[in-house]
Amino acid sequence: MGTSTIAESLGVDNARMDNDSERESSSSRPAAQFVGDVIKGPFATGSKSAHEAVLLKTDEHQYVLRRQGGNPFADSELEALVGKRIRGHGKLSGTTLILSDYVIVSA
């Protein structure tokens, strides 16, 4: 019996898998600090994914907020931050900010 990998037995090209992994890791940036107002507003308007989301509105951008390890669909801890200004650390993945920690700056 040969020593083929699972990818080989499924007929998946390892080089393509490596490229996909590189693309995924380059799409999220290293952790950074963000300061802004937590609001609730429309996201992905006009698409099948349209919904009300908890957002962080900074001076430059607006990001969908998620907590590392939190429920991506309904996070009561993030909901409780709506209307508050926070300073947080996290990673950006596209338009989503995945918070690792935060403090409330003002209510």
Short descriptors:
107 residues, alpha+beta, OB fold (Dihydrolipoamide Acetyltransferase, E2P), five-stranded mixed barrel, disordered N terminus
Describe this structure in words.
The chain has 107 residues and is an alpha+beta fold. The chain has one domain (29-106): OB fold (Dihydrolipoamide Acetyltransferase, E2P). The protein is built from three helices and five strands; from the N terminus they run H-H-E-E-E-H-E-E. Strands 1-2-3-5-4 form a five-stranded mixed β-barrel. A hairpin with a 2-residue loop joins strand 4 (85-93) and strand 5 (96-106). It starts with 5 loop residues before the first helix and ends with a strand. The model is unreliable at 3-26 (pLDDT under 50).
Major sheet summary line? 5 strands, mixed, barrel
Averaging pLDDT over every residue, what do you get?
A: 79
Order of helices and strands: HHEEEHEE
CATH topology: OB fold (Dihydrolipoamide Acetyltransferase, E2P)
Q: Judging by the overall fold, what is the CATH architecture? A: Beta Barrel
Give the strand line-up of the largest sheet: 1-2-3-5-4
Task: Please identify the top-level CATH class.
Answer: Mainly Beta
Outline the low-pLDDT stretches.
3-26
Our estimate of the beta-strand percent is 35-45%
The helix-and-strand class reads alpha+beta
When the domains are counted, the total is 1
Helix content: 10-25%
**Given the C-alpha coordinates, what overall shape results?**
globular
- Number of helical elements: 3
Radius of gyration: 18 Å
What is the end-to-end distance?
65 Å
Query: Got a strand count?
Result: 5
